[in-house]
């Protein structure tokens, strides 16, 4: 009995072993463990006769980043393993594009995803085409495609080869007596590079290869810089010379990519493509808080190509420098920033719009595809909301009541003062309090002076807002002969504050809209808001003029004036709610 059980066990083991070998052998594709040998686990020797299959290639020469179509055809076959290898080498190079729902799949050889392809089933095939993408490095040399083709379990051929594909020689170090080639663009501005460029007549950056041969980060998510000029894009890929980066975006000075351990500026490694006297230079800097260091040495940075055309900047470069942040990372994962702004003498200036930031850390060498958006600090949102409420609602209503509605409720007092005066005081206290809080929130968020017209005007408004209540506290008595002087200065200061506040809000909304496409309508709504306020003021001024001329009938006075105020407040609140919604959505 035991002998019989033992025999049954060995029979089961034999069947299981052959089943596993069959599965690993060819039915569902080759495993990555055979990348080097390219031999299937079929317990059989390869055929020695000439293979009844051929590998044809779509190009006889290639350059870094090129795509080559490879076709495996011949007699019917059930399985295969295909790689691109250097002539005389034995390791897979480059990678293959793997379409969804295809009859083949990618294999990761030597830790490089999709560097080889194999079948997904044992169904019969006679011809398959593949797209191979070369490395962005120019150091692969001449290559050839090699395949192992399986006709049946015991019948297969190895070393099926294509014709040799020559490598185009691209020099990144032009000799000193030869001018560095330029990248020709459709713009009237041609650009040169610091250390060399492609000798091609065109320079293109695209999303092709994202997730397969390179990591890509963009905004919006569907960005393809080869077809759209209104998006921002960066990619990274490992080469034998370092890390190759591509940067693309609209600017009037520079486009920069930053690598950070968090989503705030400070202690970040930054590379930029910047205009300098008509040329595009790759610049390497380090952020210290909200400031930038002087440009770092470019010895380890070699420019491949760069151009600026139609307001669009694009460049490609290789760096041998390790990414340096406050917390050194061994996994090459960072938050990525994309920013644009002006330059001065070729150096980066503070970016006027909020940068695009990745929602999570991205592996620069992990073939990831990610998108980002402008991340608004909640403190900045609160700052904007409070300023809007202060200067477009409480402040506006308070000023209009003081100018046009002093006689409403005449004779009725609260705390010994006229109703209009108490309402005016309450609304202006709310206005100044909101302004002070918003002012503090902005500096808490920025933690330093950011520069630009918006903060400058904001500080002026804050200063004038503090003068106004102190002037009111120490004003002279109503019967004093100097009281008209106070009234005049008080009114002039209020008008200046209002004008500057509105201008500051417009600038703030423009900053918001330039960083977020979903908030671009807020500037137009603010224009309508301002127009609505001007319309009401014109109506009230005309009405006041007619009253002085005794043209306006007193009988309708008490009915129309409160109605105008109510209509104004309702319209004001509608515009306010719309703008607050826009700020909240960013």
From TrEMBL:
<dbReference type="InterPro" id="IPR006593">
    <property type="entry name" value="Cyt_b561/ferric_Rdtase_TM"/>
</dbReference>
<dbReference type="GO" id="GO:0016020">
    <property type="term" value="C:membrane"/>
</dbReference>
<feature type="transmembrane region" description="Helical">
    <location>
        <begin position="563"/>
        <end position="583"/>
    </location>
</feature>
<dbReference type="InterPro" id="IPR042307">
    <property type="entry name" value="Reeler_sf"/>
</dbReference>
<dbReference type="InterPro" id="IPR002861">
    <property type="entry name" value="Reeler_dom"/>
</dbReference>
<feature type="transmembrane region" description="Helical">
    <location>
        <begin position="452"/>
        <end position="474"/>
    </location>
</feature>
<dbReference type="InterPro" id="IPR051237">
    <property type="entry name" value="Ferric-chelate_Red/DefProt"/>
</dbReference>
<feature type="transmembrane region" description="Helical">
    <location>
        <begin position="486"/>
        <end position="509"/>
    </location>
</feature>
<keyword id="KW-0812">Transmembrane</keyword>
<feature type="domain" description="DOMON">
    <location>
        <begin position="226"/>
        <end position="341"/>
    </location>
</feature>
<keyword id="KW-0732">Signal</keyword>
<comment type="similarity">
    <text>Belongs to the FRRS1 family.</text>
</comment>
<keyword id="KW-0472">Membrane</keyword>
<feature type="transmembrane region" description="Helical">
    <location>
        <begin position="521"/>
        <end position="542"/>
    </location>
</feature>
<keyword id="KW-1133">Transmembrane helix</keyword>
<feature type="signal peptide">
    <location>
        <begin position="1"/>
        <end position="25"/>
    </location>
</feature>
<keyword id="KW-0813">Transport</keyword>
<dbReference type="Pfam" id="PF02014">
    <property type="entry name" value="Reeler"/>
</dbReference>
<dbReference type="Pfam" id="PF03351">
    <property type="entry name" value="DOMON"/>
</dbReference>
<feature type="transmembrane region" description="Helical">
    <location>
        <begin position="385"/>
        <end position="405"/>
    </location>
</feature>
<keyword id="KW-0249">Electron transport</keyword>
<protein>
    <submittedName>
        <fullName>Zgc:163022</fullName>
    </submittedName>
</protein>
<dbReference type="InterPro" id="IPR005018">
    <property type="entry name" value="DOMON_domain"/>
</dbReference>
<keyword id="KW-0325">Glycoprotein</keyword>
<feature type="domain" description="Cytochrome b561">
    <location>
        <begin position="350"/>
        <end position="546"/>
    </location>
</feature>
<feature type="domain" description="Reelin">
    <location>
        <begin position="16"/>
        <end position="181"/>
    </location>
</feature>
<feature type="transmembrane region" description="Helical">
    <location>
        <begin position="425"/>
        <end position="446"/>
    </location>
</feature>
<keyword id="KW-0408">Iron</keyword>
